[in-house]
Amino acid sequence: MTDQTPDPVLAHALSRRSELLAALTALIACPSDGADPAQAPGMEGARRLVEARLTAMGFCALQRLEAGGQPAIYAERMDAPGRPTILVYAHYDVQPPEPLALWRSPPFEASVRDDRIHGRGASDDKGPMLIALEALAAFIAIDGALPINVKILIEGEEETGSPSMPGLLAAHRDLLDADAILSADGARWRPGLVSINTGSRGNGGFEIAVRTASKDLHSGRYGGVTRNALHVMADLIAGLHDADGRIAAPGFYDDVPDLTDAQIAELAAIPVDMDAHLAEIGAAPFGEAGHSTLARLWLRPTLDVNGMWGGYTGAGSKTVIACEAQAKMTMRLVPGQSPSHARACVLAHLRASLPEGATLDLLADRGWSGANAVPDDHPLLLAAEAAMHETTGQIPVRVRIGASIPLTELIETALGIDTVMFSYATSDEDYHAPNEFLRLSAIDEGLAGWVAVLRRIGAQDAAEYAPFRR
Amino acid sequence: MTDQTPDPVLAHALSRRSELLAALTALIACPSDGADPAQAPGMEGARRLVEARLTAMGFCALQRLEAGGQPAIYAERMDAPGRPTILVYAHYDVQPPEPLALWRSPPFEASVRDDRIHGRGASDDKGPMLIALEALAAFIAIDGALPINVKILIEGEEETGSPSMPGLLAAHRDLLDADAILSADGARWRPGLVSINTGSRGNGGFEIAVRTASKDLHSGRYGGVTRNALHVMADLIAGLHDADGRIAAPGFYDDVPDLTDAQIAELAAIPVDMDAHLAEIGAAPFGEAGHSTLARLWLRPTLDVNGMWGGYTGAGSKTVIACEAQAKMTMRLVPGQSPSHARACVLAHLRASLPEGATLDLLADRGWSGANAVPDDHPLLLAAEAAMHETTGQIPVRVRIGASIPLTELIETALGIDTVMFSYATSDEDYHAPNEFLRLSAIDEGLAGWVAVLRRIGAQDAAEYAPFRR
Q1: DSSP bridge pairs for A154
Q2: Backbone phi, then psi, for B368, in 5-degree steps?
Q3: What is the pLDDT, as a whole number, of residue B3?
Q4: Distance (Å, rounded) from C-alpha A297 to C-alpha A371?
Q5: End-to-end CA distance of chain B
Q6: For residue B319, which residues of chain A lie inside 8 Å, CB to CB?
Q7: Do A171 and A343 touch, CB atoms closer than 8 A?
């Protein structure tokens, strides 16, 4: 902190560290795996704990919002007229705990060891959620009010793809109206690196089948005289990229912006050795020629086959010429690209590459979500960066996520506002794997960060957000 | 028949048509599926029926030959000193009957309808075996002796790959010594076409795995920065053939003989429209440029991927970059090619094509068998052709089999003699599928053919075969 006077709100928050850990332990004990209908009591238990804490903090308008799926929890405190209104987002549901045999302590029983608290949801997102709530609670306890207007939205479908979120947002547009979203979900990129996420790639997937005959053929009776669907599929997949690793579908890059010199310099300055990171998992760097590894990961689109199969795949051998082959593909897209245009380009390219005697069918078309980027000068981004700088002494590195955050785009579409991620989880905390954990250090860092960012936003005027609302 | 005097042996054989059908019905009722241990009683039942018939016919030295698998039945009659000794081959085991639901009458209950006898094994090989045996029986009944020396070998492992046959042949080399083999197995190529098989392609298979990392990777966190094993495998498969459909592995064609003008003319004269046949099953003609469809099927080698898989192949989508992909491949080889050289060429080509950051492992190496061809002027081939010409009025078309007959090569290797196929099954009789049948017309045609070929061989001298024995 640049100011040497201790912040009384932060001091209060830090003094309640053990209460936060107790609350996190109780939340982890609720097996809120929304994918498993048998865990409905765990979902309800988690909701009740969150609701009880919001009530005790003096939040108003506490209610459950439902649109046919798991209820989300809403509450608000509109304490600061003229200051920005921020929707604080988190989720109370967790990933399934399987495979259970790989956990070193039971997934729904918090276990502190090696300065980490282990348990399903510790990092994603129960710990980061409680950090945000306890920072808010400290303002209320010490100042009697929040420095900004806060709406809370804690959903229960994040880990299952938020299926009812579009309906929920549409039905409660006025209630949820805010200047921006500050998310307690969305992990920090690397341990030891102060960073802030400013965007994510879009994605979408589809599945194709190639057919070359009405039935599988014996390779002795037909070998050499007709098409093999596996060869055709291999040719199609091999033709998806050119020799430089660029996606070969004409038109695919139409709306992909060239990297600016500033972006190239910004990426070059990021102190991360991706190639060493790849070497650790036995992988070699590879991708679109002419771009750095980070550029390829964050600012360039990709097209990957995620699964392919056809013919005889059992034990032993079978001399069959397969009549069908299938493949699942997904793309990662960058801001500017239309998912439907990108997909149309790939399909047209596949169809144009199809040899005589083969047909191609589109079997499924899934999960389209556009890319997302917070504007460089968005006031909430600036507030978050300033809070990080203040609490860590370091200027946060602006990073992106190669993956996709459908919720961000969903909210942007439904509410017309941007999301800034401000979670104190870290991406290495095994949050979709056994032995999920949260570093205990994240609690103090997070409380400091949240107190600081709430103060920074409290120093802003709501009007500063108007140009960024759509 | 060119000679208008009825052949008394044939007349006798034809008069016993209903006994032959009764014997076939009894044999079909023995479920001799050697792949299914539960059908051991069916295997034993079939052996006993065959042994009883051989005994009744007056065959000598009846015995079971075993080498750790299903016993083969052996018997002999050395009635004709100075005449050739022919080993007559057939098999008593059948394919599994599954899928049972598709049979219109029970697989192990003979059902005559539409001038066909239906049942598992009717065509492969119980019907053709009984035709051969009943022709032999007619000679014994009318003449009291066979016109040649006959050794009978009826195996029980043909449908399961004859695993103990190499050991059996080695252990009984002297007993099985003969001038050539006349096989009651190996179907006629096309209904309505008088043809004789003069060769088959070799084959062999192997399985490879490509790896690009130590674990599957998330396409958001790694998409664009490293190799995808599915792309690498697709590139490898796509690179197996050049744009002309030729196998691209250097050295693969080293020992493949060019087609002679005579061969090209012979193939062109065969009255079969393969392209129309392909169209019936929704397939288009395709293969090595510069060769006719029949040349590609019979006289040119092939390399086919029979199965490939990797990544996520379940329901829905998963944004995974696969770290591993696998493929099963088989080759069909022509006379002159060494299976091990051909395989080495393909593997070397695959390894040379492998990009940096990927590894290739050979997982399995299976079923190597060389190609086979009966010499053009082999006396048994000439006898068989003459018998066919005599009984049908047509000169048989010499055809080959695109598939592989490992037994032929096995016998050639073990006993140093050639095999001529003389089955009266036809290749469209669904013998590896539900509703297997044998045309009833095959019985009269087959009895006439076998009586004629035995007489033709009886007119030969054993010494004529000496130059062809190795």
Answers
A1: A73, A90
A2: -80, 130
A3: 54
A4: 13
A5: 35
A6: 203, 205, 304, 306, 330, 403
A7: no
Residues of chain B with pLDDT under 50: 1-2
Bridge partners for B218 per DSSP: B320
pLDDT computed for residue B4 by the predictor: 62
- Residues 6 or more apart in contact with residue A416 via CB below 8 angstroms: A469, A470
User: Residue B342 carries which side chain, given as an amino acid letter?
Assistant: A
Q: Which of residues 427-466 of A touch B (CB under 8 A)?
A: 427
**Interface probe, candidates A190, A219, A259, A369, chain B, greatest B C-beta count within 10 A:** A219
CB atoms within 10 A of CB A361: 11
Which pair of structure tokens corresponds to residue A337? 């690209």
Give the residue among B106, B154, B115 at the shortest CA–CA distance from B438: B115
Residue of A nearest to B230 (CA): A305
Note if the bond before B99 is cis, omega within 30 degrees. yes
Burial zone of A397 (CB within 10 Å; 0-12 exposed, 13-18 middle, 19+ buried): buried
Instruction: Identify the CA nearest to A207 among candidates A239, A233, A241.
Output: A233
DSSP B219: H
| Residue (of B109, B132, B112, B105) closest to B121 by Cα position | B109
DSSP B167-219: HHHHHTHHHH--SEEEES-S-BSSTT--EEEEEE-EEEEEEEEEESSSS-EEH
Q: What is the DSSP string of A94-136?
A: B-----GGG-SS-TTS-EEETTEEESTTIIIIIHHHHHHHHHH
- Would you state the pLDDT for residue B403? 85
Our measurement of the distance from residue B151's CA atom to the centroid of its chain's CA atoms, rounded to an integer in Å, reads 21
* Amino acid letter, residue A465: Y
Question: What's the gap between Cα A245 and its chain centre?
Answer: 26
Looking at the predicted structure, is the pLDDT value of residue A1 above 60? no
Contact residues on chain B for A320, CB-CB shorter than 8 A:
306-307
**Distance of alpha carbon B177 from alpha carbon B169, whole angstroms:** 10
Give me the pLDDT at residue A316, please. 81
> Does the structure's ipTM exceed the value 0.95?
no
β-bridge pairing B320-321 and B72-78 = unpaired
Residues 209-248 of A with CB under 8 A from B: 211-215, 217-228, 230-231, 233-241
pLDDT recorded at residue B1: 44
Q: Most A CBs within 10 Å: which of B225, B226, B399, as the mutation test of the A interface? A: B225
| Model pLDDT for residues A134-185, shown as the tens digit of each residue | 999 999 999 999 999 999 999 999 988 888 999 999 999 999 999 999 999 9
Closest alpha carbon within chain A to B247: A224
A416-457 pLDDT per residue, tens: 999 999 999 998 999 888 999 999 999 999 999 999 999 999
